[in-house]
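Entry 0007
Protein: Pyridine nucleotide-disulfide oxidoreductase
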Amino acid sequence: MPRRAVVIGAGLAGMLAAAALAGAADEVVVLDGDALPDGPEHRKGLPQGRHAHILMAGGLAAMEELVPGAGVRKRLLAAGAHELSLGRDMVVLTPEGWFRRWRDEGPALLACTRALLDWTVRDAVVTQAPVRVEVRPGTRVTGLLGGAGRVTGVRFHDGREGGDGGNGDGGEDRELTADLVVDASGRGSRVTHWLAALGVTGVRERTVDTGLVNATRLYRAPEGAGRFPVTMVQADPYVGRPGRSGMILPVEDGRWMVSLAGTRGAEPPADADGFLRYAMELADPLVGRFIARAEPLTDVRISRSTHNHRRYLEKVRDWPEGLVVLGDALATFNPAYGQGMSVAALGARLLAQEVRRAGDGPGSAGLAARVQRGVVPWVDAAWRAAVGQDVWYPQTRGARPTPADRLVTGYSRRLTRAATGAHGAAAALWEVTSLLAPPARLFAPGTLLSVALGPLLPPQAGAPLTAAERSLLAP
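Output (structure tokens):
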């Protein structure tokens, strides 16, 4: 009998999960409630997609492994994405001072719009998978089939025939059986509700919310911008005030994506004049001075989909066979820390590994529970990185600093301070931030020595810009 896998969600996590299953299932069906674009365009179901996203080296490596032969990296670069290094191509003001730009490049990152990334991955998976991957837009999943012991498929509303895009005004309700269901439906996942309907209750959830608001605008990069660095003024969680930050991300088509962010009480405005003023009033006016001479291409876009939310599904005592939850459906992180996409990719890679190891198809006994437990280290690392800073903002809801937070934060700040002037400390941060190494790398003997010695070079007096970059600044 043909083996079928169903994936809920055609975003990044969903398409990577489809790629992971394509070698083990005879048929992979991806269901998504949106009307999906035919090219690199934004879609309604991803409101945070208009804001800055960075693909870290660990996430990119996982994608390349999941879609072999498709050359995701080459496709993105050919479409105009920027490959930049954490060591050389970052201009960052941290709460502990300016990071240096080292001759050692360090791990690479890819910078592009989320629309381009999602489209490239979706096209690569559909065209390169060893079995047919069918993507059905306008199909809204409404529940799971089966029982508490095993999920056997999904119930969904198919709005394609009714022309309603899956919103329930037309079309019909259907069922689709599957050996394995993967929920990758994102921040709005209803998986806890679906599980409760099957008799699986008591799922622990946690939300930590700084009230962060993102405001983003696209600009045409000025003539002479060339290989422009990621430019960032970070928020300072440790001063007892709401956080304010700003970032310039070079993206495809000769554009800059400029994202400003403020936690509860310091939200950035949506008007053009206020946007520039907010950028100028950051801890350093660098971002504002750059964009003051750049041509705006869009209005300011606002998003509030920024809270940290986690479902501790790995703690469910008897996890049902046939169901895996990945990506933002499992855990979402404050996007300021840039690890969500990479965590999703690493989870999909683990799914592929476990399916191969099982050998007898995606419905293998115990496979779903192993995957659900196996993704925990990566989720834990990203969660601690995000929440460990977010708890310090004065109006954060859902958590306050604990004695353990104070201990970890003290070390983290000393490590960051050392990284402003010591290559060993900087390299450790690069590897962990890129998800190329686990957090234990930050406590390796060489890193501990760098932290103990502190920065070996004097602090940077200002932003470490090249002469060409400095010439782009407004007075």
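Curator remark: The radius of gyration is 22 Å. Residues 217 and 379 are 30 Å apart (CA to CA).
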